[in-house]
């Protein structure tokens, strides 16, 4: 009995919707023609405006019979996990450019056929790059209709095609992601490891997909491969009707791998660089002597001989650790003296130490606010403030950055009996300063508490470095002044200043204070000595401020406008990848500066964050500004 090749192609406005083919005897033609028409008419991609049915006679003597590839199935939870499996199998083929091959899929979405890709050079070998290569004239040795009569069996059809492709001359593998929105499964197939079905290679309802045939051989021999794929009639023996039992990828850490991979692809992956010297204007890292433009050690007090001696003396007297929390055995005379001195410096009744600035913000806000409170928070506030707001369970209202009109409007629209306005004094990424006089006036008018984070303002702004109140010449103060010893004071830890009433409440309610072992004697003594130096020698602050102005002037002469009244000078870049490239080039020029990216700043708002120190020289700052400008201008 003669055999026939039956093909169906359906399209709408010339866009491909569906296709299928069979090799059948005459008795099977009628039923299969109707089934293929029904399949075309009821496709997820919509109803076609053209259905083409093509019937050709087949010379049975020229049919090649091949065995179906061995089949395995891997069950994954996400497209990212599925694509990692693809990468692993490509590596089994000895390919070093696996990621680049996967990226080529975007070029297949608009193609009707498959991409024929040199597996080693990534050269495309199709004679018609728009059309691609069509593997045709194939079927299972015996095919039964599926239960619904529409001749649709994704799995069987995929195994048939993959088996033919794997037998084509010089083909080492095929990768397929279905373009059917209802079918998220795909596969990688090779004679080396068979047909590997992967249950999820794209998101649900995604209409995109494609095929890549990986070719290894001389480019001149490609036509033998193409002729086989497009013209050779093939029947595949022993094609199963359903997938083999799934192999579950039971790796509980896969979601972490997926997350890290996504961060790398988005250029927001973070890595640590080891410093092999004290943090001053120059550091030694990775075998390089670097100009440091990223440290918060603004006055270089962490490396002052006097602070070092104070730390050594405290260690000799009190040991290396405090031995307990402050409410148990962890309060030393050193803690009490430093709290008194900080309160005096900030002109408040009392102060309380925390282990870090982060713990201070979280501990203060969660102790003072609860579900009955409303917090008004600047949109650019530090992550520690944001986390404190979230953990407090208070209603948090975000006002536009430094927009006093928006703050007043949102307070008016959100009446409350217990409320707090919280803001950074100096914003840690952009280096600009909060409008504290307006904030204090707004807080007083609306009977709200006011909290200011002075982490980056103490020792930096104001004529003598006393911070934001001195900067604005204010006599009135915020209700709550938070700060750190880890920036201009060159040590470690956080603190809060305010009324005795505030400090008593925090001692009894602030969990990050109550349940933490207190800061070590060396850290406390160093911070206290640094505070004494800061109060007695304001010339360090003046030198820092002069350096910031000089650096901004140097940038401006190079066409980069960046003003700052703090020690932080932002240089706007925008693109995350470009910011990382610039930072790396600066590192190669022995300049250490950080590329700040999402989620620290908004997506597309990446910047270089230059942190200036009092000990930088004008020559160093001038040189750095010239090099920075050179690479910022490069695209």
Keyphrases for this structure?
635 residues, seven-stranded mixed sheet, 22% strand, alpha/beta, single chain
Please, could you describe this protein's structure?
With about 625 residues, the protein is of the alpha/beta class. Helices cover about 35% and strands about 20% of the residues. It contains 19 helices and 26 strands. The protein has a 7-stranded mixed beta sheet, with helices on both faces. Strands 16-22-21-20-19-17-18 form a 7-stranded mixed beta sheet, sandwiched between helices. It has a 3-stranded antiparallel beta sheet with strand order 2-1-3, covered by helices on one side. A hairpin with an 8-residue loop joins β8 (about 170-175) and β9. α9 runs parallel beside α10 (about 385-390). The longest helix has 19 residues, at about 540-555. The chain is elongated, with a radius of gyration of 34 Å. Residues about 145-150 have low confidence and may be disordered.
